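Go through this pair.

…
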Amino acid sequence: MTYKVAPSVLAADFTKLDEQVKCAEKGGADWLHLDIMDGHFVPNMTFGPMIVSVINKMSDLHLDVHLMIDNPDSYLEDFVDAGADSLTVHYEAVVHLNRTINHIKSLGIEAGVAINPSTPTDSLKEIISDADLVLVMSVNAGFGGQKFIESSYRKLSEVRSMIPKGRAIHVEVDGGVTPENAGRLVECGANVLVAGTSIFKAPDIVAAISRMKSAKEF
């Protein structure tokens, strides 16, 4: 299976952001993953549409915006206007998920659904046909550098098996992704690998992405 590497900007050095984004591009990154946190849905705060807009001016890469926030419906247009190419909301944060997913798609971009580690994949049964992307969180959202949760391999396989025949839905994994486990993640069904610490905290960003992109399936 071919797969995409999406460096998570959360782990970048924001004093050298333009330089590091350029390094990610040089290394062959396919997407940039932007984690939006509000300090309520997850215990951390990051940035909002203004920074997404700045990054959009830095790079032509697909901006994969992950909304880890309460009441995401109030901010969808803001992030689309800022340059998001895909918007992912959390199953746990949205009451009328079908409506939200279809609203995102009506704005002309891809719509994703994320599930936390404690949320079973069965929760996706009624929405997966409408989504363009499913994000399996393999750590508890909020902070980078956490240890990968092993049950995520099984969850990725379950999500991949749920996808209706003929539907090209991305299966994304975020949290504790490294060149060492990338091959197994792809084998289990992931085709978008989000990696922050293992890329932006590496001595050589270009080399780290190259290693991630050359991972072999088990």
